[in-house]
Every structure is written in structure tokens, then in C-alpha cells.
Amino acid sequence: MSHSPDQNPSARRTAGEPNLSELPPDLAGAGFSQRLRQASVVERQAARNGALLVGFVGVILLLTGWLDGPSYDLSYLFRPSTVVQDVVIVGMDDTSHRELSPRPEALWDRALHARLVERLTRAGAKAVGFDVLFDSPSAIEMERSGFVENPTDRALRQAMDTNGHVVIGAKLRRDGVSAPSPLFRGDGRWGVVEIAAGDSTIRTPVTGTPQASTFVGRVARSAGTGSLNRPPSAWLNYYGPPGTIPTVSYLSALATNETPDVVFSNKVVFIGETATLPPARDDFTSPYSRWREARINGVEVNATSYLNLVREDWLRRLPGWIELAVVLLVGSGITYGLVFVEPPRAVAIGLAGTLTLGIGLASQVWFTRLWFPWMVLAVAQLPAAVVWSVIVRSRILSAEDRKLRKFLASRKNSPLVTPPTPDPTLESDDTTRLMETEKQGRMAAPMLAPGAIPPVPDHRMIRCIGKGAYGEVWLAEDMIGKSKAVKLIRRAAFNNDVPFEREFKGLQKYTPISLSHPGLVHILHIGRNDAGGFIYYIMEAGDDVSAGQAFDPKTYAPRNLGTDVDARGPLPVREVIQTGIGIAEALSHLHRHGLIHRDIKPGNIIFVHGRPKLADIGLVTEIATPGREVTFIGTHGYMPPDGPGAPSADIYSLGKLMYVTLTALPVSSYPEIPVALLQSRDGETIRKLMRLIERACKPMESDRYHDAESFAADLRALG
């Protein structure tokens, strides 16, 4: 009989302690499905409530958009910078303003803009975009008959006309569009620039109005580039931190000796403020401002929007209904599943899930250009799911604990009291005296008759499901209705007290080791009844041959590797390899603690929640050392010629076990291999596996694997 190992260290206990909670199966495969089938009504209802709550939280966050900005910005932590070569920015910076303007507080002289346009025309710029709002005449004499045009305005307008590819900006206001002055507004020469809203970070491009096209769209048409098709769900795709797009100062752009024509030739040039001193006002936060000082000028935002348009590499969001479905299904599904996981594992899964979802969804943007508000899942729903799971599991375990303690209190006058495990720090003589004292303190009880139902505290014995030379195995049910297996070892089966006491001490050594590895039979409790003449240990119940853990106690028949081979014949080679890896890892753990099993065979590999485990610990003993021999005992055919005293003997037995499961032949047929197996599609893998089995089963100990981990590593290499 065997039982699946508990992954929750808090559930480990020494003999004599009450079993306060059921040990959790793995959150994977058949183990988790079995856990769901065994779940109580309370657990299922709590899981449904949590799924609804966390799903609702995700929907609210998605609809309100509270985490849209942080999710978008933090994705830029994983953004690789892109080189930009087809766009140049001419920055209206502080130094240029001081050198070119007569007064520090004065606005930029439009005669300078005229000179710059003429320079760009000579250099062969493809198009020019002024992120400058020419919203009123600069020096217009107001007369009743109309406007009198200033010479500087006339010079700028003539320079624009000569170039033919100059576009100027306009701004959207609540009351409409703030259009440029009629002096510069020619047909197709102006458009609405990108504007900031809310937290002053520009993330989505401006859409324009029926009365005004977008600024970048006008520039793209003037340059004759791009399809000009922008998806309705577009978000700006910044190519790197502020300064990624090449920038030339206004003063340098006017000086041909500093900036050659090739800098502007056949490129689109954007002109706008990069100044930080008054009267500068075109300055915003950027996605990179979340973790460093990285403000961005409006002209660079417009240049970025233009590049997104002509390159068609906007970031796009999924349709709203898809995002809603993802948030509901993922958030609710994770919450429902975590309710059936013990708190330490739930926290670990939550942390791993947050990192995986966060990094995965934030970094995939730059491969797919599909953007999703990932923080709803990773930062809101997953932590909420973990908190709900911890609360629910803690309340359930607390309720079971109270129920168990109340039951134990009602039985405190029972004549059968399980003694505590002797302190392992005591010397052997002290331990013996302690045990004798405990014997004298017990209340008298009659010797248990052969075939009688053994009295095991806090358990209802259902029926005997197996017998051996030294005792029997019973199917039992604990006080909270969970199935267990109880191994009974009778004193009368031994000639004297020495082997009987050795069996008990062996259980004391093996029990804490079994709790620390998933491939070993899990001993939950050991006890003894000297008056009744027996010792016993309690394990998790193994799977039924057909029903797994959801079995009927009346028809229960334990499943082991031997019954699998009898029912199915040769097992698939991949299954044989995976079983071998699991048992080899369990043996490695056992050997590191100085113990050997001595009886590895198909019948002693049982399944718990679908996982194979090393069971039947009756022959487990300490590894042979000089001066300490190990009894020559085991199962014929699985025991090596040199005897069972060393770890390599267990590896020999494991090799024979894998041969039997691979071929379904008797162990005495080793190393015969059916021709049909070698000619199957897995024939090559079977040949490779047999070479490893042959090394494990070498007659000479020096030729075998000397440690189980090496055997496991070679098995893993087979895939």
C-alpha cells in the first residue's frame, strides 16, 4: 500500500500527533483532477465564489482602464530601441533661442522659420512639419479695410509656397479646432497635432475631426509615403527613450558649415520646441518616465506618430470582447484552482504566475505588436486569487482541526492510547527505558486474536485488503471520512522481540524521510499496542485499479505496477522511462539518508493520484557497512548475486523491474526482448533503454551504476 507524498511541509508530523488535514496532491495532471473529485461541497462553493469575485474585479479594472497606463508604460522595460534614419527633428532649443532672438522672453521670429524652410528646400528635404501653432499674425496692422501683411510673415508664406511640402500644426480644444492664421492655412497645409490628456502621457494618437485632418497624416501625404491606414485600436509605438529620433539644434540647422545638406536630404523634417526655459511649454511625460527622468517634447511625439503611420507598426489592442473573455476565464480559472491548493504552494504559484504573466505579456508586445493591460491579471487578479485561496484553506483546515480535537477529547478515556515517538536524540538505552515506562502506563487490553479487527485510534477499520508473513494491510477511514491504509505487524509472527523491535525502529527512521520525497510511500502515523501484540503504521490509500481515488471501499482493489502489466501487457517505453526516473529519484533520496529498500519489484510500486511510488517498506534497512552485515533477503530474480546490502543492489532491482514492465515477460526471461518490440516505431528508444538496463543489472557490483541519481540522469537523457 502506498500514498502520495505531501508537498506541504506544515502537514508533516511525528508519530502520536493527530492527522489534522488531508495531504494535498500535486497541482497537475491526474493528481489535481482527483483532488477536485474529492473536494467537499464547502470547498467547491468557496472556489465558485472566489472565481466570481476575482472575475468581477478584473472586469471592473478592465472597463475603468485604471491599469491601462501602467501596463502600457511598464511594457517599455522590455522594449529594444530601434534606429531611426528617415526622420530628423530640428529642435527649437534654449541655446538657439538665446543666440537668435533679440530678447529672452520674445517668441521665435518667423523670419528665422522662413530661413530654415529655404535651407531645407535647398537640402532636398522630402517634407517639413512645423509643430508650431501659427494662430495669429505676428505683426499685423489692424485696419478697417483688412489686414496689412508684415514682411516677415510674407517671407515665411513665400518660403512655404516655394517648398510645396510644408505642413503646420493645429490643436484641438474643447470648443473646436484652434486653426492656424489664414495667412498660412493653405489647402492641405495644416492638421491637428498629438495632444496629451489625463496624466500628460501621450499614448494614443489624435484622430482628427471632420473639419481637420491629422498633422502627421498631412505630412505623410506631402512626403508621398505610407498607406496612411491607421487601425482604430492604435496605440503609439515609441522606438526608444526620448532622444531616440535624431535631433539637430535650430542654430546648427541654419549653419550649413555645421550641418551638411545630407542630414536633411530625402528625409522628413519635424520642427518644434525642445526648449525647457520660458516661453517653452511643449513638454510631456513619456512611458519611460515611470522609472527614470525621461520627459519628451511634443515634436518627438508627432515624429513618432508619423513613423508609426508610414511604417504601419502601431501597437494594437485586442477587441474588447476578447480582453473581457481573457480576464474572466484566466482570473476565474486560476482562482477556482488555487482554492484546492495548500497555502504555501498557492503563494508560490501566485508569485511564479505574476512573474510569468507579467514578463511574458509585457515582452511579447515587441514581437506581435499586440498590447494587453497585463497588470489586471498579474498584479490584481493573481494576488487576489492567492489571498482568497489562503483564507479559504486556512478556514477549512481550522474547522477540521476543531472537529478533530473535539473528537479526540471525547475519546480521552479510551483504553488504547498511541504512544509518542521516542526522542531520536536519546541514547538507545534511554529510548528502551522510555518505551518500557510507556508500556507500564498503558491500560490492560486482551491480546488481539488472529483475524480480529485491530483497534486503531481515531480510525474505523473497514476490511483487510492484503496479508503477508508478518501481518496484514487494512483499508480504514479516519474521523473526517478520508480513506487510509493501515499496515498491521504482529509480534507473534517473530521468534523473539529483537526483529519486532527492529521493525518498529526502522519505521521511526523511515517515516520522516518518507515525508520529504514524492516518490516514497508516505507514512502519516506510527503506533503500537503492546497489550494487543502489534505495531501499526498509517498511510494514504493508494489508487483503485479502475476508479483511482474515487473508489468504493467495498470493491477496492489496490493498483500497482504489477496489476498494470497484467492488465495492459508491455507498457509504452516513454511510460517505462518516466516511471524509472521517478523510482530512481526516490531511491537516491533514500540512499542519501543511509537506507536501502531491498525489495523493489512491480508489486511494490503502487499509485497514488496516478503517480507511481515506492511502497512495502518492510525490508527497508540501513546500508551495509564494515562490521555490519545486511540479511540476505529479497525477491528471487530481482536480487543481485552479491546480495542486497548496497545502493547498487536497489539499482539492480530497479533495472529488472523496468525490464518486466517494458516486455511483460517474467523476470527470469531477462535479457530476452520480443522482436515485435524492437521492430516497433519506438524500437530505437527501446534499444537505448535496454543498454541502460543492462548496465544497471550487471552481475558484478563494480560494473553497475553506483548511485541512483546517475541512473536517473541517463534515463532523463532519453527524453
Mean pLDDT: 82
Sheet of most strands: 7 strands, mixed
Number of helices: 20
Work out the strand percent.
Answer: 5-15%
- Rg is 40 Å
What number of domains? 4
**Helical percent range?**
40-55%
Question: Ends: how far apart?
Answer: 30 Å
Low-confidence stretches: 1-38, 138-145, 411-445
Q: Please give the number of β-strands.
A: 23
What distinguishing features does this structure have?
alpha/beta, Phosphorylase Kinase, domain 1, 4 domains, five-stranded antiparallel beta sheet, elongated, disordered N terminus
Helix and strand layout, with pairings?
Layout: H1 29-38, H2 41-64, H3 68-74, E1 87-92, H4 94-100, H5 110-123, E2 127-130, E3 141-143, E4 146-148, H6 151-163, E5 166-173, E6 176-178, E7 190-192, H7 215-223, E8 234-235, E9 247-249, H8 250-254, E10 268-273, E11 283-284, E12 296-297, H9 298-311, E13 315-317, H10 320-338, H11 343-368, E14 370-371, H12 375-410, H13 428-441, E15 459-467, E16 471-478, E17 483-490, H14 497-514, E18 523-529, E19 534-540, H15 561-568, H16 573-592, E20 595-596, E21 605-608, E22 611-614, E23 621-622, H17 647-663, H18 675-678, H19 683-696, H20 708-717
Parallel strand pairs: 1-9, 1-10, 2-5, 2-10, 5-7, 13-14
Antiparallel strand pairs: 3-4, 5-6, 8-13, 11-12, 15-16, 16-17, 17-19, 18-19, 20-23, 21-22
Helix pairs in contact: 2-10, 2-12, 5-6, 7-9, 10-12, 11-12, 16-17, 16-20, 17-19
